[in-house]
Amino acid sequence: MKRQMARTLAWLVCGVGLVWGLTGCASPGVVDARLHFGRSLLGKVEVLEVGQLAQRSGAPVAQVTVRNLRNGLTSLTYHTVWYRDGVAYPDALEYWPEVTLRPRETYVITETAPHRDAEDFDMEIKAK
Q1: CB 89, CB 82: distance < 8 Å
Q2: Taking the CA atoms of the chain, what radius of gyration do you get in angstroms?
Q3: pLDDT digits (tens, 9 = 90+) for 47-96
Q4: CATH number of the domain located at residue range(s) 25-127 in this protein
Q5: Segments making up each domain of the chain, as ranges
Q6: Among 19, 98, 112, 113, which residue's Cβ finds the most Cβ atoms within 10 Å?
Q7: Whether 37 contacts 25, CB under 8 Å
Q8: DSSP 3-state helix, strand, coil percentages of the chain (rounded to 5)?
């Protein structure tokens, strides 16, 4: 009985790991549908927090806190798309800022919406 339970648990863990690995939605730590995390960063960078704030100007701000898990430098790049009523705001520039994280450094990615009417965002983070 214990052997069968252990085998079932092992399959369950593998299945969850496979689904998580295939979606590539987030690193260990935080899972958020708005965040799309490149597989090449898995095990190197961890997402600690994902949030959306409002500025005094009214434009929303996306904040994603990441941490370098390595003892060396890790470079990443990111892109944010903002939405209103499910429709993406036009992106005049395909802007992908670059960040190099020092060993074990925590960094807050902050992106301000192009307009105060923006309601939600998607952010893609991938290795540089």
Answers
A1: yes
A2: 17
A3: 999 999 988 888 999 999 999 999 999 999 999 999 999 999 887 668 89
A4: 2.60.40.3230
A5: 25-127
A6: 113
A7: yes
A8: 20, 45, 40
